[in-house]
Amino acid sequence: xxxxxxxxxxxxxxxxxxxxxxxxxxxxxxxxxxxxxxxxxxxxxxxxxxxxxxxxxxxxxxxxxxxxxxxxxxxxxxxxxxxxxxxxxxxxxxxxxxxxxxxxxxxxxxxxxxxxxxxxxxxxxxxxxxxxxxxxxxxxxxxxxxxxxxxxxxxxxxxxxxxxxxxxxxxxxxxxxxxxxxxxxxxxxxxxxxxxxxxxxxxxxxx
Amino acid sequence: xxxxxxxxxxxxxxxxxxxxxxxxxxxxxxxxxxxxxxxxxxxxxxxxxxxxxxxxxxxxxxxxxxxxxxxxxxxxxxxxxxxxxxxxxxxxxxxxxxxxxxxxxxxxxxxxxxxxxxxxxxxxxxxxxxxxxxxxxxxxxxxxxxxxxxxxxxxxxxxxxxxxxxxxxxxxxxxxxxxxxxxxxxxxxxxxxxxxxxxxxxxxxxx
DNA sequence: GTCTATATAAGGATAGAC
DNA sequence: GTCTATCCTTATATAGAC
Lengths: 207, 207
Prior knowledge:
Two copies of one chain form a homodimer. Chain A is an all-alpha fold. Helix content of chain A is 77%, strand content 0%. The first copy, chain A, has a single domain, classed as Tetracycline Repressor, domain 2 (Orthogonal Bundle), CATH 1.10.357.10. In chain A, α1 crosses α6 and α5 (86-102) packs across α7. The structure holds a DNA duplex.
């Protein structure tokens, strides 16, 4: 029994799609590539997901439901233990994604898929993400704003915008750091995350 | 004689491609969409550019040759008049792109195309950009590093990386700010650029 | 739930008339 | 330099056997 046999057809498709979307984008990946990579039949995608657009949505849902919960729960913990502190809030956003990108089972590809989605101007995809996960960004924005009194509304809006871009793309790069299985890569990523938190906090404060 | 008639077939194709690439991505845009949008014949792309890949490269070359020169020349001017100052270096990078995105003739779409390229992991495209324009980023990196003595090599590398991501995506958003033709949008963009410079400088210093 | 086969459309690229 | 027509490949999606 091979390693991949442990996963259902549906999970194999999701994993293959995630990997290929990260590498070639949504439009740049064909369902034939996906099924070939997943070693399933071409018809399987339509049987399990109905359409390519639905498959894209499910690739996000599979990870984002859990990731969003982890982020919000870490945010609440940070606000409880260190109220008014900026860095713990940023850590609450970054560290669950970092854990995902260090994970086996293709989690690292997903962080890059997220970065793709950020660049993507596709209306339907943006609406899907905004409708289902927009509340996470709003919670974090509110929490960060509360740490930064005395900054004008317009200025604050921009800093949050810049931060979102910086975090998204920086984390996508974390997913590219080669994981040779050693603990040193994990430590390397952790140092990168620390640097990112420091960078974003300084930028937000506008020191 | 209509407004578009002033431009050659080649220029019309480049303009249409730029607009569509910004909106749908490279893989997500078909040559048929491009030629329809440019109001030229389907065969014109292959006649003038040989292939889709070549068209993509020319879309970059048309703007990036000039933009790179402007950036490097602004960098030299900044280093001459305010040596060791960080903000003028960042301004030298940002303001030529801002001017482009405020320009008529589709310059705003190009800034978003640049952001697309940043997310794109396509090897051939990355190599083309790195071979032809990589020296610009290296010049700026060197200049910024010189302003930040006493920061470790690894830490500095990350901060430059975060900055590149933040700048690229923030500038793409500038290109989305609606320009109703008034001067107020120009002022709005200028304030956004000032905020971006401040944000990046603070992040780089790690205050 | 999984396969083969296929319907139907769209894609990139080219040949050859004008 | 520009057009029409077309070749060939690839794509998404589905129908129907197993």
